[in-house]
Amino acid sequence: MLIVLAFIILFHLAGAIVLFVATIHNAWWVVSPAGRDVIYTDLWYSCNSTCYPVENSHTTEAAYLQAVQASMILASILCCVSFFVFILQLFRIKQGERFIFTAIIQLLASLCVMIAVSIYTAEKKSFHVASLRDGSYGASYILAWISFPMTLISGLMYLVLRKRK
Question: Tens digits of per-residue pLDDT, 112-126?
Fold first, then answer.
């Protein structure tokens, strides 16, 4: 049982790390113009040799981008809260009970990741100025999609898991 518990904790922490890296790292969109430096764009900045804020990110035209930003931050927070609730429930709930509250929080984190990445996928062209539209998805975008099933599976594991001696 201790091995299963260690696996669940490590899987949750791995999912949280992937989620944090996807949120923070600056490679959601990558543009490689001919003869110039590669431009990496994340949810807040576009960077080549210098970084500058994503154009119009503070306006109502960027409401989609703001929704992606908020959803990824909320998913990161919920994932951390879920881990702390799991540790607390590990010592508080009675033998034989399930980790329902932890599972609900983790499934909400998974839902937030799915919402954020889906919005980014659907509206990617509206986020970027014309010079950046001919790019491709970057590593952070892929990590965000990887963090979705990791948080979902983690939440489902908490639903199934019962406290034992």
Answer: 999 999 998 888 766
- Give yes or no for a contact between 103 and 151, defined as CB atoms under 8 angstroms apart: no
| The two structure tokens encoding residue 108 | 């909400």
Q: pTM of the prediction?
A: 0.88
Quickly list DSSP for 107-155.
Answer: HHHHHHHHHHHHHHHHHHHHHS-GGGSS-EE-HHHHHHHHHHHHHHHHH
Helix (H) or strand (E) holding 6: helix 2-24
Domain edges within the chain: 2-25+57-128+139-160
Sheet of 29-31, strands arranged across: 51-53, 45-47, 39-41, 29-31, 136-137
State which H helix or E strand residue 74 sits in. helix 63-92
Tally the C-alpha atoms within 13 A of residue 63's C-alpha that lie toward its C-beta.
Answer: 2
